[in-house]
Design brief:
The protein is mostly helical and about 100 residues long. The chain is built from five helices and three strands, in the order H-H-E-H-H-E-E-H. The chain has a three-stranded antiparallel β-sheet with strand order 1-3-2. Strand 2 and strand 3 form a beta hairpin. The protein is elongated, with a radius of gyration of 16 Å.
Length: about 100
């Protein structure tokens, strides 16, 4: 699968362009620090620092306590599963909200 296709898939699940690039670069690097991620993803180091917390919160990236701090990404297939489960939860929550508003 082409990089552009992978980015498009991740964006369809709500990741930004930079989040997608950082995540995909990290899947190829296995474990890396911010400087390595920035170089591999072609995303500015400052932007990498901004997107990593969200990727961690989503469960797509883990932070290793080391010096320098290193990050590891889950596999792309697993990431799609995580993002799909999140999308399904959001859909159920919206459906429940609509039902509760119909009854008021």
């Amino acid at each position: 699968m082409e990089l552009e296709d992978e980015i498009q898939i991740l964006e369809s699940f709500g990741l930004s362009f930079n989040e997608s690039r950082v995540f995909l670069a990290l899947t190829l690097l296995d474990t890396a620090n911010v400087k390595e991620i920035s170089k591999s993803s072609n995303v500015a180091r400052e932007a990498v620092y901004r997107v990593l917390p969200r990727l961690q919160k989503l469960g797509l990236v883990e932070k290793e306590i080391a010096w320098p701090i290193r990050f590891t990404a889950i596999k792309l297939d697993d990431a799609v599963t995580v993002l799909l489960a999140l999308r399904n939860k959001e859909t159920r929550d919206l459906q429940e909200k609509v039902r509760s508003e119909e009854h008021t």
